[in-house]
Amino acid sequence: MNYEFDIEINFSQEVCIMCFKVFKKQDIRNFIYLTCNKHVLCSKDCAIEFINICTENDISNWKYAQCFKCFTPLNKKFFESIYGPAFSEMLKKAEEDKEPKFTCDICITEYKIKECITLPCDHRFCKTCIKTYLETNINEAKILDEDLVCPQGDKTPVDINIIKYTIEPEIFQKYERFAIERWTPQLENGEIDFHCKGTDCNFRIILEDNLDDYECPKCKHKCCPKCNEEPHKGNTCEAFKKWKEENEQADEKFNTLVKNSQWVACPWCKQIIERITGCQYMACTSMVCRGKKFFCFDCKQGLEYDHAPHRCIR
């Protein structure tokens, strides 16, 4: 009796396309399918070596990687299965490493080109160094074109826009103030260069020389625009100056006289009164106080009533 059997032999094995290791299909935990789902890698180490070859050791080339056997492109999911969440950071770092760089000639440190400031002479410096260089010069009132030049030794002036957008706003305000102070306008006949002397004011303008007074639009300080003294309409600047000097001398002489005499200014009404005789307790007899205000002649303190006790400090 003859028997016939149909036998199908299935070799349940896989071969790693990287190291050619042969292993059983049922041992699924030990191998990694490529995107094509036909070819496998036996371990994570083989997968990483495979990726390095496919990307030429540059992970940013991952889109060009493919299976050695069937040339099926590898998708992003495959790379994420190997590297996990770190894959995104690897791509970011790889892109950053490709960015062009330069070395700052001041601090001798390497930076990305986008972190530099390029001067008109084409010399590049890091933002921190050029900022420090500019602010140091400006704080020392060095604001002329020959002062703010390329630190490399080039005599090319730094562009005003680079100065404005590199330094701190308050330093740029100082730069503008120094620039205004050093500016010398070309005046025509009948013009004067007016600088306001108001508190913390740096306003400057060209005015006609026939004005007797002017109010600064910035600080509201009023003065004679020609001599910067208080307005003196009807008098020349020379006559006003002489009058002021004479009055200052008179005030000085008067104060000396008061100091060396029995005269004293009442602390209540500020009128000058004289002590003829008696103790240091005084009643002011001016038209303002009318004998109703009291003070101590020695220490000039105002008192609530006559002979009020107080701590006399001479």
TrEMBL record:
Keyword Zinc set for record: yes
One of the record's GO molecular function terms: ubiquitin protein ligase activity
Stored InterPro entries: E3_UB_ligase_RBR, TRIAD_supradom, Znf_C3HC4_RING-type, Znf_RING, Znf_RING/FYVE/PHD, Znf_RING_CS
EC numbers for this chain: 2.3.2.31
One Gene Ontology cellular component annotation held by this UniProt entry: cytoplasm
Main location class: membrane
Catalysed transformations (reactions): [E2 ubiquitin-conjugating enzyme]-S-ubiquitinyl-L-cysteine + [acceptor protein]-L-lysine = [E2 ubiquitin-conjugating enzyme]-L-cysteine + [acceptor protein]-N(6)-ubiquitinyl-L-lysine
GO process annotations (BP): protein ubiquitination
Highest taxon listed in the record's lineage: Eukaryota
Topology in the lipid bilayer: Single-pass membrane protein
Subcellular location(s) per record: Membrane
Pathway(s) served: Protein modification; protein ubiquitination
One protein family per Pfam: zf-C3HC4
Keywords from the named record: Membrane, Metal-binding, Repeat, Transferase, Transmembrane, Transmembrane helix, Ubl conjugation pathway, Zinc, Zinc-finger
Residue stretches making up the RING-type domain: 100-314, 104-151
Entry keyword Repeat: yes
Protein name in the entry: RBR-type E3 ubiquitin transferase
